[in-house]
Amino acid sequence: MQEFVETLETEFQKFANPQNAAGQKAYMKNHFEFLGISSPLRREIQKPFLQKQYLPPKSQVESIVKTFWAKPEREYHYFAQEFCYKYLKQFEKADIELFEYMVIHNSWWDTIDFISPKLMAEYFKLYPEQITPHVNKWLASGNIWLQRSSILFQLHYKENLDTALLASSINYLLGSKEFFINKAIGWMLRQYSRTNPDWVRDFANNTNLANLSRKEALRLIKD
Q1: Are 169 and 150 in contact, with CB atoms under 8 Å apart?
Q2: I need a surface site. Which of 71, 92, 139, 166 has the fewest CB within 10 A?
């Protein structure tokens, strides 16, 4: 495991660009350090590390992810979540705890918007009985990133989306002043309007949504 981590770190360091890093850090409101590697270049560098034949055993995933998550530079967090996604067919019931850890630590919209609609989404397809207890826990947590996750994990579910769950989750969060909550609600509804515009229109018209949420929800719907 240590060799895997150190080798990737060495490769990333080779392409560090302090000038780019300053711009990336500013874009993320100075929440994180950056190496200054663009996303296309990062994905090219990390490609060999994500090939099936070189992936470490599943038993090492949590340790590797947490090792990268503890690093200050955001590129390592991006790699860790994409690394984790490579194991989606091997997700175990306990893995939701790792995903929660990733949401709660080094939290910002850019990682949550991968973890929730990709990692959590695939996990819940395998373990649907885990949806209700975890969504209820996240909503009640007061943590805006867990709450955002409770909305966005269904982002790509299309016709398999649970409208009753989505409606109850949104209703729980009504009145929130958090931009990232209201934006997520609008984004989720806008995405679902591609599949079921009538439901979204009816829900938006009968729910006291924040202006931001409502505007985003109805953006693609033509009256």
Answers
A1: yes
A2: 92
Q: Can you list the residues of the chain whose pLDDT is less than 50?
A: none
What is the tens place of the pLDDT at every residue in 76-102?
Answer: 999 999 999 999 999 999 999 999 999
Go through the chain and tell me how many residues it has.
Answer: 223
What's the chain look like in SS3?
Answer: CHHHHHHHHHHHHHCCCHHHHHHHHHHCCCCCECCCCCHHHHHHHHHHHHCHHHCCCHHHHHHHHHHHHCCCEHHHHHHHHHHHHCCHHHCCCCHHHHHHHHHHCCCCHHHHHHHHHHHHHHHHHHCHHHHHHHHHHHHHHCCHHHHHHHHHCCCCCHHHCCHHHHHHHHHHHCCCCCHHHHHHHHHHHHHHHCCCHHHHHHHHHCCCCCHHHHHHHCCCCCC
Does the predicted model carry a pTM greater than 0.85? yes
d(CA 124, CA 118): 10
Quote the longest CA-to-CA distance of the chain: 58
pLDDT tens digits, 191-205: 999 999 999 999 999
**Cα dihedral sign, 58-85-139-148:** positive
What's the rounded Cα separation, in Å, for the pair 64 and 10?
A: 15
Tokens representing 81 are: 């979540």
Do 155 and 116 touch, CB atoms closer than 8 A?
Answer: yes
Whole-angstrom distance, CA of residue 189 vs CA of residue 34: 33
User: Which residue shows structure tokens 């560090």?
Assistant: 16
